[in-house]
Amino acid sequence: MKFKPEHGRQAVALLLTLVAVGAFAQQPQAITPAKSVESLGFSPERLARIDAVMQQHVDQRHLPGAMMILVRRGQIVYQKAFGYSDVEAKTPLRVDDIFRIMSMSKAITSVAVMMLYEEGKLRLDDPVSKYLPSFKNPKILAHLNLTDTTYSAVPAKKEVTLRQLLTHTAGFPYSHPLYKKAGIPDFFSVEPKRITETMSALGALPLLHEPGEKYTYGLNTDVLGAVVEVASGMRFGEFLQKRIFSPLSMNDTGFYQPDAKKSRLMHLYTQRSPDAPMTRHPDFAEENYPVAGAKTYESGGAGLSSTVQDYAKFLQMLLNGGKFNNRQLLGRKTIELMTTNQIGDLEMGSAGNKFGLGFEITTERGHAAEPGSVGALRWGGRNYSDYWWDPKEGLLGVWTTQMLPSAYPGIDKQFKQLAYQALVD
Question: Which CATH code for domain 26-100+257-421?
Fold first, then answer.
């Protein structure tokens, strides 16, 4: 048989597939301290640069404190905390302190949806109305009077699907006046609300655009939390606890924290400009969630709290092809589906990256902007937190402080920058 160029491409593709399968199979099933960072391809001297930079940010009062973890091939390369969980009391921040992960909740909710997908309890292109009837016959906002919030709307051409919720292309934004008027929280609530009833109310309100035609970041993942309740027959938080948190030994992760863990919740601070003082956040709900209030609202988009170690376990499960603690939570091909571009040519931001089913995907254009790998996944949280996982390097990182807003954005990206410069193998 005469050799053709496409045969070579096919052989390379097959080899890459076999390597990927082998990488999944060889991934460790727990996170353990590294015996030697050098054996994992890291330079101790270069890792020490993280210490100097983060301590400088604390000393210069750019943030109250920060905690972070870096894991490669299931081994902890770097795990430290700097500064304070309570600046006023000078309480040192610890690596096992709890933080409000906000939109980092979205990845966990997306995994929950895909678990039900694997069980055949839902399909990605199901209309949301199959689970929440109020989403039947959606309408598109045509005109809004901001003075009195009266509006007009026209019928949508099609219904919203679960896939569109997972990709933020359904048309549900955050902070819309109509949603606020209807009492729908953007992120979390200390009031006695419940996710299924609240998202059902959202279904009766208009979308910003035709489903699937634009990327609009917003309340999509909260709707998915309600879908999980309906499709599973379990309260959303109970499903996450039973199916994700317990199997992964994420013992400090949940929607609400018990009184015994209150002291481990990092306080939330605010600083609107470099000239302004850094102070405790003045809003009761922002500062006291998730240890106060009715403790009933389970926001799949922004309601969870966790630790950097717990979240690293979740990311390691994804790097492992869905397996951790000798439990297979998801199939390898399902994760492959989740990490494939699902928005086509739609733009989600200036970086040129794309979005899968719950994650931002680094493209060649995005990779040109910062270190990492093409195909690495990431997202962040509103209170200044960020994570990434890099299948090519077998690497994950989680970084957080608790600032809303911060006068010094980009420190999370600086941690990622410093992590990758220390990788020398």
Answer: 3.40.710.10
